[in-house]
Amino acid sequence: MGFLHEGHLALMREARRHADAVIVSIFVNPTQFAPSEDFETYPRDFDRDVRLAESVGVDVVFAPSNRTMYGPNHETYVDLDILPKYLCGASRPGHFKGVATVVTKLFNIVTPHVAVFGKKDYQQFILIRRLVQDLNYNIRVIGVPTVRESDGLAMSSRNAYLSKEERASARSLYQGLQQGQRLVSGGAINATEIVQHVSEFISSHPYTDIDYVTLCHLETLAPVDEIKEEALLALAVRVGSTRLIDNAILNRI
Question: Read out DSSP for 141-173?
Fold first, then answer.
């Protein structure tokens, strides 16, 4: 959705490894925002975005208007049955319907051979991979690991909203994920205990308000009771008024 940062540029560099031509879409998609969310204030800087895309060798920037993507009397949407019920989908109803719709339209317009998405929004990555499979797209979906700031905070366009004090507390998200892995490495397998520990740690920092902390299956995103070999520790936390997400795959090995 634009306001590019190093995380986005990592996706573009990965795309270049797999394709002769790299196309980047920049489109703040209105259908994935609820009326109470930050569509109008979402950070935008198109000229800067174009310069950054050019700096890593992008060939085409596709930046359609809202009218191009959703013309008069638009009424066709794409939705998934199960995956959007978990994680962010539970607290942002309709969000992934908007994501699935705009990505389907993007694929139909661009007709890519490869599509590259970041794993910071792990749910979105899994959902798009399922969409490609279910709709028989001949597209290879590639996931790129989360790119982080030097202190571990996952890069996000919304980080620009954080005050200095909130930015300091936001580090607790990644630190909480690290604590979860340390617990599992030490032999913990009970999901409730791990989630409680991580939640208490994050909540101990000022300005934090947890939406969810959960351990779930890597493919279905369904909650798990215990970690057998590996599981996804995913979280969404409001730091001040800014909603941030992050995740880590916890391994027992």
Answer: EEEEPPPB-TTSPBP-GGGGG--HHHHHHHHHH
- CA end-to-end distance (rounded Å), the chain: 37
- In this model, does residue 253 exceed pLDDT 80? no
Among 8, 74, 113, 217, the active-site one is 8
Spatial distance between the Cα atoms of 114 and 12, rounded to a whole number of angstroms = 12
pLDDT in tens, 191-224: 999 999 999 999 999 999 999 999 999 999 999 9
* Whether residue 113 lies in the annotated active site: no
Please give the structure tokens belonging to residue 155: 């890069």
- pLDDT tens digits, residue range 44-97? 999 999 999 999 999 999 999 999 999 999 999 999 999 999 999 999 999 999
List, as one string, the DSSP characters of 17-50: HH-SS-EEE----GGGS-TTSSTTTS---HHHHH
Contact yes or no for 117/11 (Cβ under 8 A): yes
Amino acid 191: pLDDT:
98
Which range of residues forms the domain containing residue 16? 6-144
Q: Are residues 91 and 163 in the same domain?
A: no
Q: Per this entry, what is the length of the chain?
A: 253
* 201-234 burial code (b ≥16 CB/10 A, e <16): bbeebebbebbbbbbbeeeebeebeebeeebbbb
CATH of residue 96's domain is 3.40.50.620
Say how many domains are in the chain: 2
